[in-house]
Amino acid sequence: MKALVTGAAGFIGSSVVRELLKGGVEVRVLVRESSDTRNLDGLDVEKVYGDVRDSESVRSALKGCSLLYHGAALYAFWAPDNKAFYDVNVEGTKTVLNAALKQGIDKVVYTSSIVAVGSHGADKPANEEAEFNLWGTGDHYARSKHLAEVEAMKICRQGLPLVIVNPAMVIGVRDIKPTPSGKMILDIVNRKMPGYIDGGINLVDVEDVARGHVLAAERGRVGERYILGNENMTVGGYFKLIGEIAGVKPPKLKIPYTAAILLGYGYQLIADMVKKPPILTAPMVRTGSKYAYYDSSKAVNELGFTQTPIKVTIEKAINWFQESGYLKRTKSL
């Protein structure tokens, strides 16, 4: 059995590759020539070069494969050109899944995002039946992932054996980029986070998410989506836990919503001028100020999804960042 993994050089994708190799699956990875492939170094994989937006390279990469894990995406809260979110996340997904349909792939797991489920408050954690409600945030990543799911389900209805997984805020080891969620940990431990906004998040270990992908291919029902999450926490509580584990003082200043929005616009303006990602954006504030709590019981019950305690995951992440030279100082964990 051979599986193609797109986005394999990334945080989640490389963990999926490792999980597949553990199970004895032959793995081919589709990466761009410009990709940072350090997370694949030393792994017994077949590398092919291409782009999810290029149908010919996708068709070629899929030849001889019976499984597809489509994880390639632009995961960011800012880009020099917002069109990139839709080119990669929506059009790229359509290109990959249409190619898989034509080649008769046995099972496809598409890595969506929890943002495609929306944010529905703290009183009742949202499940897979919840509808996207983040249009008003101005978050192009969230919009593009929702639209990509819409397109994915259209192709599923044409006969593609597709299962969707929706990872929550993923943290853990080997976040080399780092992702926005990893940078948040770094900013707190390196004391670059001036304050926080009120809100709630759901956190999950990247290695659990990787196992969830493999379980989705093995046990997931075609046409269904599965939330891969774990613990619901307030933003303040999460930052406090990071501080306790790392031995640093977490940010205590709770920034009022209006002030945070203005700061976000200011940072965006600077980013647009210097063409470098900002610390904060207005869409980040609008999205982050919501209580994004989720219920992962469907994945637990149907897939056998397991969840590492978040404290353990944070410890693993901080240790990895420290060993890899990302952190200025932490206590020994």
Give the topology.
Elements: E1 2-6, H1 11-22, E2 26-31, E3 46-49, H2 55-62, E4 67-70, H3 83-103, E5 107-111, E6 121-126, H4 140-157, E7 162-167, E8 169-171, H5 180-189, E9 200-205, H6 206-219, E10 225-228, E11 231-234, H7 235-246, H8 257-274, H9 282-288, E12 292-294, H10 297-303, H11 310-323
Parallel strand pairs: 1-2, 1-4, 2-3, 4-5, 5-7, 6-12, 7-10, 8-9
Antiparallel strand pairs: 9-11
Widest β-sheet, arrangement of strands: 3-2-1-4-5-7-10
The number of distinct β-strands equals: 12
CATH architectural type of the domain at 2-177 and 202-232 and 293-308: 3-Layer(aba) Sandwich
Note the total helix count.
Answer: 11
Binned, the helix content reads 40-55%
Mean pLDDT: 95
Shape, please?
globular
- H/E topology pattern: EHEEHEHEEHEEHEHEEHHHEHH
Question: Could you provide a short overview of the structure?
Answer:
The protein has helices at 11-22, 55-62, 83-103, 140-157, 180-189, 206-219, 235-246, 257-274, 282-288, 297-303, 310-323, and strands at 2-6, 26-31, 46-49, 67-70, 107-111, 121-126, 162-167, 169-171, 200-205, 225-228, 231-234, 292-294.
What does this structure look like?
The protein has 333 residues and is of the alpha/beta class. The chain has a domain at 2-177 and 202-232 and 293-308: 3-Layer(aba) Sandwich (Rossmann fold). The chain is built from eleven helices and twelve strands. The chain has helices spanning 11-22, 55-62, 83-103, 140-157, 180-189, 206-219, 235-246, 257-274, 282-288, 297-303, 310-323; strands at residues 2-6, 26-31, 46-49, 67-70, 107-111, 121-126, 162-167, 169-171, 200-205, 225-228, 231-234, 292-294. The strands form three sheets. Strands 3-2-1-4-5-7-10 form a seven-stranded parallel beta sheet, sandwiched between helices. Helix 5 crosses helix 11 and helix 7 crosses helix 11.
